[in-house]
């Protein structure tokens, strides 16, 4: 039993060594292919640029970023400390209000539904009762409206013609204020 386990362990170690060798070979090939994509002068310039940028970052950017993050965490802690009593007050006052509103909504819902149904009934009944009277009124009054329209049309046209220049003057005067 122990020999089988030792043999299995030895086989697994050999397999691991083979896979590691294969992985390093593939990585080396990939690096060579990647290097072949770029011309040598570009690789040199990019390496120099990367070196300059990383030096500049370490000298200027990283300290500034560290200071910024430190100040931000201080401000965050200060804001959290300042807001804590207000948050507690809000929790203590808002939670009971929310609960009371939920109870109110639950208790008022049947009454609201009943009032809504009754208002629809009243609207439909009043509409059904008034519609015939309204139609009759319209039929009776329409000839009078037409006659009044015929008689007053020349006078309305005359008033419109007389007041047109004055209306234009008022419009042009008020134009800057209407925009």
Rg computed from alpha carbons, rounded to a whole number of angstroms: 45 Å
Q: Looking at the structure, what is the overall shape?
A: elongated
What is the number of independent domains? Answer: 1
Name the helix and strand elements from N-terminus to C-terminus, one letter apiece. Answer: HH
Helix coverage percent: over 70%
What are the defining features of this structure?
mainly alpha; 179 residues; coiled coil
Question: Could you please describe the fold and organization of this structure?
Answer:
Keywords: Coiled coil. The protein has 179 residues and is mainly alpha-helical. The chain has one domain. 98% of the residues lie in helices and 0% in strands. It has two helices and no strands. It is elongated.
Give a short summary of the structure.
The chain has 179 residues and is mostly helical.
